[in-house]
Write a structure and sequence with these properties.
EC number (chain B): 3.2.1.23
Shape of chain B: globular
Number of helices of chain A: 4
Oligomer: heterodimer
CATH architecture of the largest domain in chain B: Alpha-Beta Barrel
CATH topology of the largest domain in chain B: TIM Barrel
Strand content of chain B: 25-35%
Radius of gyration of chain A: 20 Å
Organism (chain B): Limosilactobacillus panis
Family (chain B): Belongs to the glycosyl hydrolase 2 family.
Pfam family, one (chain B): Glyco_hydro_2
Strand order of the largest sheet of chain B: 32-31-28-27-26-35-34-33
Largest sheet of chain A: 10 strands, antiparallel
Largest interface: A-B, 38 and 44 residues
Number of helices of chain B: 8
Domain Glycoside hydrolase family 2 immunoglobulin-like beta-sandwich (chain B): 229-331
Helix content of chain A: under 10%
CATH superfamily of the largest domain in chain B: Glycosidases
Number of domains of chain B: 3
CATH class of the largest domain in chain B: Alpha Beta
Shape of chain A: globular
Radius of gyration of chain B: 25 Å
Number of strands of chain B: 37
Strand order of the largest sheet of chain A: 8-7-10-11-12-21-18-17-14-15
Largest sheet of chain B: 8 strands, parallel
Chain lengths: 317, 649
């Protein structure tokens, strides 16, 4: 069967499979997200992607007590609770899970597949985040994230989407701003396309939030290894994320915010094994007035009572 | 005279037999020596010394300074270096609290009620580690038969010196040169120099800088022989006339040795053209009256134009006895009627950094390569100014700043943070130097030494009285010293802001955050030509600037660059465009203080900070506030600094 102009849809019991020319995705109902992102035979996901709310405490955060004020977001980042999944194939919106799926074949096709995962944050009060994946026939996945503003929650350290890859990348190339940038520290950057070798971690004495790149149009991550025991190729292969309606911020590091948070010295960080890509729609400034109380300037905060929306294209062509 | 360990407890004894401070000029036997940067009159004593460590004064080895002392159980140490970094004693990083916090109760002598002498406070201090140094040497042939002195460029913190069993002298002030006359005791061969270095003395109270607390002979040591006639001190007086086109040059020399022969003074421009060529008879004091010079080249950051001064001392036969070369510049700094700081008639903007001397393997015993690297980083990133926080730096640094047009705020070795700020509150209950009479001379001496040593450097635009020491009569006296001796520079001191009520100038600032609850005398009209604060947020800086500023404003520390920081810099920089009375500031700070060590677990070379040596109390990673990582690679924020500092180059 040729899929070239159609998506192949597999109505599984625990997942929705979506295939096409050179790609195959598995959207899990059990694991609360995209379980498999296979492109040209290579798996790109270690675990299902989730929203992300935490950044490893910076020295300025610690000094101003922001980490304490925002501490709920650490729990919300660490533990994720997916509370609803909505499936839409072409124009058909399914009523709920499990799907009534005994009447399909292995030859189901579609032009468009869309899933929305709703997360209820482990905060008090709770709020919701939805992540909607929309796959087109070329295998591009538009990902739209929505944070529902809620009064009574602390300001957010970050709002983004975290994707952990099974092996460490050899580097990445991006079109955006030079160097490490934050909303309140991007005036000195130049715009261009930059190649970064490996996954450098800024060697701040105490590991902390680092490596953010604001105002990015496109980033391509390249790996050479997989965890597949039958795959001993060492040829580079790549995944591209492109902007949707607006540019995005990203960091690409071998560590999660929690791993960085846990280390008091660079050498305490785990051996680099994964690639942690964070695509962020809202980034808090780093501040700089002092490191013992001064807050980040107001305009660089992320208020929790406002909705936040952002989108981008995964596996962009 | 014999050495007395009680001097450690006495703030009024801070130099014994130490030669007066003087200008930092080099001197040579002839032009070839100058060209090769080697002087027949200088003999380095750097290198291996015999060394014995004592954990406290009572554990010292009596008589170790005797030439025939059996030093068989002495080890070795390299001079210059930090004792701690040879692992004789523990590394400790601590910010404001004194290093004996929670271990020993101490108060500064006379600071509690005017009578507390605190006898034995340091001479019997169980935390007062001692380094006993011995060096055997023969005098180099060219130095024999001459008057010979020794110069210690930096010793933390208090040192006693012996030569061949004779007590020579005592010095404090860790960061300026200490010189002693060795002539009465020196012999051609088989000399034994002995130095006892105490980590603590009353000087510890006024050297409470935010840094790793080290001790030892951490800067170079050399013997200096005196030519038959010698320029002991030199004051170059270049002045810029109104109009900034013409100037005057004059020179004051203080000579030592044979009062015969002539002094030949030459001044050449950068193309070698001779502008001054005069001879005067040798005398104890020689003054070259002002020479008018037209169309002078002014010195600034963009064009650090230096003139070459050559002072030749010739004997009665016309033979060259001594050559003193010095590169100096013409520049004029002033505050105009609108309270705007001008350099050479143009508004001055400081794109500055605070710079601790730091090397991740050598501590504060930095190398010339470190200094040259730092200058290069300044130039690459539009940094045009440096504050020598919070002590005078190594001698070559000042010349490098002259050569490269780096504006200097030359700070005295003074910080007494623990004596006035406790748990963040301004509480000067036992502040020194304060207005305690017994603490006046020691700090005025530090001002004098800083001035006398570095007075000829065009790079120095500001003298800074010190850092974070509150304010009182004694700091006012330091300020007066500079005013009485130097009309060519401005005087800076930040701590005076804790004595003045700013309700009118900065209404939104809560008084209790900067004023002592018990009240204080206001010193603002006595201390500091400029209004200086540290870490004042942009909003409050703007308030000051909007409320009829009567002094130009600067931040002597701002943009605290700890970890991932330096955000929001634009809010400060845009004030430069709005208010001419704002003249910028010095970022805190240039380089992380961290030590590179081998991690026993991973075997990797890693950076360690406060507390990593089991040192308590410690302020942990607060030592890492630099724009540079401790290994001299730039932090990511540097591109932001380069941009913003490039806007007002």
């Amino acid at each position: 069967m040729a899929y070239t102009n159609k998506l192949h849809v597999i109505y599984g019991d625990g997942s929705l499979g979506v295939g096409g020319d050179g790609f195959h995705y598995i959207f899990s109902y059990e694991r609360g997200g995209l379980e498999s992102l296979k492109i040209a035979g290579k798996e790109w996901l270690y675990r299902t992607p989730t929203p992300t709310f935490w950044r490893a405490t910076t020295d300025n955060d610690r000094g101003s007590g922001f980490n304490i004020k925002a501490a709920q977001w650490l729990g919300a980042d660490y533990f994720q609770k997916c509370t609803q999944i909505d499936v839409t194939v072409d124009d058909h919106h399914f009523a709920g899970l499990p799907l009534d799926n005994d009447h399909y074949s292995n030859d189901e096709t579609a032009d468009k597949v869309s899933l929305t995962y709703t997360f209820t944050t482990l905060t008090v009060p709770a709020t919701t985040v939805t992540v909607t994946y929309t796959v087109d026939v070329a295998g591009q996945i538009k990902i739209a994230a929505h944070y529902a503003g809620k009064a009574g929650l602390p300001e957010l350290p970050i709002f983004g989407f975290r994707l952990v890859m099974p092996t460490v990348a050899t580097g990445f190339e991006y079109t955006g701003l030079s160097g490490e940038t934050y909303p309140d520290r991007m005036a000195g950057a130049s715009h261009g396309t930059f190649t970064v070798k490996g996954l450098p971690v800024a060697k701040y004495l105490v590991p902390q939030e680092n490596g953010m790149h604001m105002a990015t149009d496109r980033v391509t991550i390249t790996r050479e290894t997989t965890q597949n025991n039958a795959d001993c190729a060492r040829e580079p292969f790549s995944l591209t994320v492109a902007k949707g309606r607006e540019s995005f911020a990203f960091s690409c590091l071998p560590y999660t915010a929690e791993e960085l948070e846990n280390a008091t010295h660079v050498e305490e960080l785990p051996l680099a094994r994964r690639t942690v890509l964070v695509i962020a729609g809202a980034v808090r400034g780093v501040g700089g007035i002092d490191s013992w109380g001064a807050d980040v300037e107001e305009r660089y905060h992320i208020p929790a009572d406002h909705d936040i929306d952002f989108d981008f294209i995964l596996n962009a062509k | 005279m014999d050495a007395d360990i009680k001097w450690l407890d006495d703030p009024e004894t801070f130099r014994v037999n130490q030669l007066p401070a003087h200008s930092d000029h080099h001197f040579y036997g002839n032009y070839a020596e100058w060209a090769h940067h080697t002087s027949r009159f200088v003999q380095s004593l750097d290198g291996q010394w015999q060394f014995k460590f004592a954990s406290h004064p009572q554990a010292r080895q009596p008589g170790f300074f005797q030439p025939d002392f059996a030093a068989s159980d002495f080890g070795e140490i390299v001079v210059p270096s930090e004792i701690e970094l040879s692992n004789y004693t523990q590394n400790n990083y601590i910010n404001t609290l004194m290093p004996w916090e929670g271990k020993i109760y101490r108060r500064p002598a006379y600071a509690v009620d005017g009578h507390n002498k605190e006898a034995g406070s340091f001479s019997e201090g169980q935390d007062n580690t001692v380094g006993m140094y011995r060096k055997e040497f023969d005098l180099a042939p060219d130095l024999r038969g001459k008057e010979v002195r020794v110069r210690f460029e930096g010793v933390e913190r208090s040192m006693y010196l012996w030569l061949n069993g004779h007590f020579v002298g005592y010095a404090e002030d860790s960061f300026t040169p200490s010189e002693f006359d060795l002539t009465p005791y020196i012999q051609d061969e088989g000399n034994v120099m002995a130095v006892e270095v105490f980590k603590h003395s009353t000087a510890s109270w006024i050297e409470d800088q935010d840094m790793f607390r080290f001790s030892g002979i951490f800067r170079s040591v050399e013997l200096l022989a005196q030519p038959a006639t010698h320029v002991e001190d030199m004051t170059i007086r270049p002045s810029v006339d109104d109009g900034y086109h013409n100037g005057h040059f004059s020179l004051d020399l203080q000579l030592a040795g044979a009062p015969v022969g002539t002094v030949h003074v030459l001044v050449k421009d950068a193309d070698g053209n001779s502008l001054v060529d005069q001879s005067l008879p040798v005398d104890e004091k020689v003054t070259l009256p002002a020479v008018a010079l037209e169309n002078i080249h002014l010195w600034d950051n963009h064009h650090p134009y230096l003139y070459q001064l050559l002072v030749e001392i010739r004997d009665e036969q016309g033979q060259l006895v001594e050559l003193v070369p010095y590169r100096f510049g013409f520049r004029r700094i002033e505050i105009n009627a609108d309270h705007v700081v001008l350099l050479n008639g143009h508004r001055l903007i400081i794109n500055g950094v605070n710079r601790h001397e730091w090397d991740d393997q050598r501590g504060r015993s930095v190398t010339l390569a470190d200094m040259e690297s730092d200058i290069q980083t300044f130039k690459e990133n539009n940094i045009n100014a440096v504050r020598t926080c919070h002590y005078p730096d190594q001698l070559p640094w000042y010349q490098l700043c002259d050569d490269n047009g780096i504006y200097m705020m030359a700070e005295n070795n003074l910080e007494s943070h623990a004596t006035w700020q406790k748990m963040g509150k301004v509480d000067p209950s036992y502040n020194v130097p304060g207005s305690v009479p017994q603490w006046k001379e020691v700090v005025v001496d530090r001002a004098r030494t800083n001035y006398e040593t570095f007075k000829n450097h065009p790079a120095i635009l500001f003298w800074s009285l010190g850092n974070e020491s509150f304010a009182g009569d004694n700091i006012a006296a330091m300020g007066r010293f500079y005013k009485e001796h130097d009309s060519t520079r401005l005087v800076h001191y930040e701590g005076v802001c804790h004595t003045h009520d700013y309700s009118k100038q900065i209404p939104s600032l809560d008084k209790s955050t900067y004023l002592p609850a018990q009240g204080t005398k206001d010193y603002r009209d006595q201390i500091s030509d400029v209004e200086s604060w540290m870490y004042l947020p942009p909003k409050q800086v703007e308030e000051y600037l909007q409320n009829n500023p009567d002094k130009p404003f600067m931040e002597c520390e701002y943009m605290h660059d700890m970890g991932n920081s330096a955000g929001g810099m634009g809010s400060y920089i845009e004030l430069l465009d709005k208010y001419p009375q704002y003249f910028g500031g010095f970022i805190w700070d240039f380089i992380d203080q961290a030590l590179q060590v081998k991690d026993p677990v991973s075997g990797q070379m890693v950076m360690r900070y406060g507390g990593d040596f089991d040192d308590r109390h410690s302020d942990y990673e607060f030592s890492g506030d630099g724009l540079m990582f401790a290994d001299r690679t730039p932090k990511p924020a540097m591109q932001e600094v380069q941009y913003y500092y490039g806007l007002h180059k």
